Amino acid sequence: MYQYSLIWFINLYVQSIAKSRKSEDLEERIKNITEHFTISIYNNVCRSLFEKDKLLFSFLLTVGIMKGKDQIDDEVWRFLLTGGIALDNPYPNPAPDWLSDKSWGELVRASSLTNLHGLREHVRENFSKWKLIYDSVKPHEEAFPDAWSTLMGLDRMVILRCLRPDKIIPAVQDFIVENMGRTFIEPPTFDLGRSYSDSTCCAPMIFVLSPGADPMAGLLKFADGVGMGGTSIQTISLGQGQGPIAAKMISQALTDGTWVVLQNCHLAASWMPALEKICEEVIVPENTNDKFRLWLTSYPSEKFPVSILQNGIKMTNEPPKGVRVNLLRSYLNDPISDPVFFSSCQKPEMWQKLMFGLCFFHAIVQERRNFGPLGWNIPYEFNESDLRISMQQIQMFLNEYEEIPFEALTYLTGECNYGGRVTDDKDRRLLLSLLSIVYNKDIEQDKYMLAAGGDYYIPPHGPYESYIEYIRSLPITTHPEVFGLHENADISKDNQETNQLFRGVLLTLPREAGGGGKSPQETVEDLAQDILSKLPSGFDVEEVMKVYPVLYEESMNTVLKQELIRFNRLTEVVRSSLINLGKAIKGQVLMSSELEDVFNSMLMGKVPSMWAAKSYPSLKPLGSYVSDLLCRLVFFQDWVISGPPTVFWLSGFFFTQSFLTGVLQNYARKYTIPIDHIGFEFEVMKQEHTMEKMPEDGAYVRGLFLEGARWDRESLVIGESLPKILYDSLPIIWLKPGESSTFLHMNIYSCPVYKTSARRGVLSTTGHSTNYVLSIELPSDKPQKHWINRGVAALCQLDD
């Protein structure tokens, strides 16, 4: 939806010449026009951007202007966005207890930048000084140790990126304030009057919608305010067959000088070309009344006509974030704000408790989306209608039954109204767990606590105003504990926002810059040679099959064969694309669009889509991806040469489910039990990496990481994460096959295992998810719900 035309841009420029401060001095006049124009562009573009993109736009604007003044070193700028690219790091990590290998690798690569020579040595010799920066609550405001305290701007942000990427967003804001002024990080608030005064009768006004935002009430109120209310404004919600009616409305309004509002344009994709024609040919100055306005509302859609977007005035109005604002919105909107509905129940005390509880639940499920995969595997669009229908059902059940039927309410709210949107079974488990906080008998108590910490409880029974007053007294920012998450979730959320910002900037960048004075071609060519020199030749599957033939007693031989075929397919694509890329750079073959994609991806340190299509799921950047691939190939090479390992590296498999089925199959055939009667029990061992010998039955596996919790090696149960440590590696786990009917499932947490931290997968043709592997049962001394709300899962690989 972000489309702007040159004519629109020139109009703004002409307005700036007219409206900026006049001066006789030419230098000052030019300065005044430039300042006025910059702010005008910022305000006009920000009006049409979603919140998540406003900082990105400011950052690009700042860097763009500084590049024009030659104040930006391209090499540093690219490093800040990508973290540099290298396959291996020859320097050992000086402080592995707090400095991650990813951070150390970035520090080593940063040391080659002009202003950061010697950084690697300084960190190695003074790591205790740097640890203070790492441990600081506000590292972006701290002075760096020794000579590095004088660093400014992007150089300073590069070091911050290496040590504490979660604080890049506030550092970017400080950078913009220093170079452009505070105006550029405080986007203008939504102002219908201002947008209206900037408009003409021929330019449509477009509301770009986001979940939970409905501009209609505000628009009708504004129309009344400027004397266009009542019959002077007509609205129609587009859908099947509504197009011709809307066209008739527009032609009538053109002559009468009234307003027309077309809602939900994204639902009438087939009628959009007709609307585009109307805007271009019918709504022209000579036959349009000056008072006429066309208002459109639409969710982002690629079917929306570009010409309307370029020539119209676009506005976004997103609902503010946070539990407090969300609760307030529910209470100030229909139906709760209606006094009749608020007091329309025969059990008023219980009714208002459940109503408040439900609004709290609604706020929690919506706000958890901000935490990415820790919050929900798939971000669902829960909306006001889910809340409204659930509320009406509470009212109905309270009026009709003596006892409150919590089971029926849980089913209707959790499985139908909200649950009807939920497609992932782990998300459904979480939804029901969050709902059980509200829908349970204890809610009848006074001051029933809704979350840890003491701030959030169900307020005592009272008039409508007392609830509003209580909501206004809640904290403005919400601690992760309120959502049931660990405080580390804030770090995960900040890291995610940093990645999103950098990804957004990279999408807008041209390709010309190279690193260290090298041209992009040289950079990519060196990298391609480096990868090719490390990539071993393919496995000889036929030779391997002679040593490991298909046997009834040993399914692992079949698993090995299938894995080698898959890895051969991947390494062949990697090898041929790199060889062809080398030839294309030299001009010996044509640079096809696929090869160009490989080139651009390698320049940005991303895995090319050509490889990803033949690869196992991975979110790693290019350097780590190649190192990980090489480790997997070594794991299988050792298996081929030395026989099956005593401990299998679970993350190393291409198709993990076939390995698990192989383990079960061996057991089933050994003891002649049908395979669908057996499952796994899980025992977490004391050993971290190696075992003396293979188990009698089942298999030892390693390589999993817990997210959202840690493995308590003293008490041998799952425990709370340590501050700032987002992932904890699990020791070796023994997968013990047995008859499922005899398993106890006592004092455990059923922990899902995913291949990557995205957690979200799609169902493949084999009937398996592309991301979910299995659930392992980990011993726990807390109820299962605690860990479900924490979003605890095990991952086969991290993202770095």
UniProtKB/TrEMBL annotation:
GO cellular component: axoneme; dynein complex; microtubule
Residue ranges constituting the Dynein heavy chain region D6 P-loop domain according to the UniProt record: 201-316
Top-rank taxon: Eukaryota
Domain Dynein heavy chain C-terminal: 496-796
Primary localization class, coarse: cytoplasm
InterPro entries noted in UniProt: AAA_lid_11, AAA_lid_11_sf, DHC, Dynein_C, Dynein_C_barrel, Dynein_heavy_D6_P-loop, P-loop_NTPase
GO molecular function: ATP binding; dynein intermediate chain binding; dynein light intermediate chain binding; minus-end-directed microtubule motor activity
Compartment annotation: Cytoplasm, Cytoskeleton, Cilium axoneme
Keywords, in A-Z order: ATP-binding, Cell projection, Cilium, Coiled coil, Cytoplasm, Cytoskeleton, Dynein, Microtubule, Motor protein, Nucleotide-binding
The Dynein heavy chain AAA lid domain, residue ranges: 351-489
GO biological process, one term: microtubule-based movement
Protein family per UniProt: Belongs to the dynein heavy chain family.
PANTHER family reported for this sequence: DYNEIN HEAVY CHAIN 6, AXONEMAL-LIKE-RELATED, DYNEIN, AXONEMAL, HEAVY CHAIN 3
Record's protein name: Dynein axonemal heavy chain 3
